[in-house]
Design brief:
Blueprint: H1 2-15, H2 38-45, H3 78-85
Bound molecules: calcium ion (2 copies).
Length: 92
């Protein structure tokens, strides 16, 4: 539920033009079905707030993984969620 909320926040932030300059990102098709969807956003939101060596996400128990750290700053945060949301609909 928290993940869904974060995704929604990211989508709203994008819609309002509050976010800019997220650099070209790695393909966020984490479930390898050939297209980036909300399901792929979930992979990132499930790890929100984690970093190498941190406690797991308190809602999901999942740990940081570089795979979901799209901007490579060693934290999974709103920037990474936004990076995936920006790719929704992309085929890669
Ligand atoms: Ca996908
Ligand atoms: Ca990051």
């Amino acid at each position: 539920m928290v993940g869904k909320l974060l995704g929604a926040i990211a989508a709203v932030a994008l819609a309002l033009g509050m976010v800019g300059g997220v650099s070209a990102d790695r393909c966020a098709d984490f479930d390898h079905d050939g297209v980036v969807t909300e399901a792929d956003v979930g992979f990132v939101t499930d790890r929100y707030g984690t970093y190498p060596g941190s406690q797991p996400n308190s809602d999901t128990g999942l740990h940081y993984s570089w795979r979901y750290d799209l901007n490579g700053d060693r934290r999974i945060d709103i920037s990474d969620i936004i990076a995936v949301v920006r790719q929704i609909g992309a085929e890669c």
